[in-house]
Amino acid sequence: FNILHVAARYGHIGLAKFILQQSLIDDIDCRAHSQDTALVFAAFYHYPSSAEIVRLLLSAGADVDAPGQRNKRPIHWAADVGNIEVIKVLLEHHCSLVPDDTGMTPQWRALKYG
């Protein structure tokens, strides 16, 4: 877990910008103990700034399809919580719509959970 994970998890856009501008982390796709990236945290935890943080992370080179736990990509997590604005940003960046390890696509996850 690093400071960028915290910023993404709690919707702190100012902190996320500062971290990236100051190059305070070496790997934007660094994984937390849960195997999730900052992009996954931003996609799953639904804050007013979530879409902006997702856009910021992607513009800084985050992998739009970096899988986290159970091979769920950011789009799966956003679909789980019905985070439409984040889903739009991820789709604009041509994310994959492949199933996760349970065989569920983001579309199915949105219908079931979101």
From TrEMBL:
InterPro entries: Ankyrin_rpt, Ankyrin_rpt-contain_sf. Keywords: ANK repeat, Repeat. One of its GO terms (cellular component) is nucleus. One of its GO terms (biological process) is regulation of gene expression. ANK repeats lie at residues 34-69, 70-102. SMART domains: ANK. It comes from the Eukaryota. Gene3D superfamilies: Ankyrin repeat-containing domain. This is Ankyrin. It comes from Mollisia scopiformis (Conifer needle endophyte fungus).
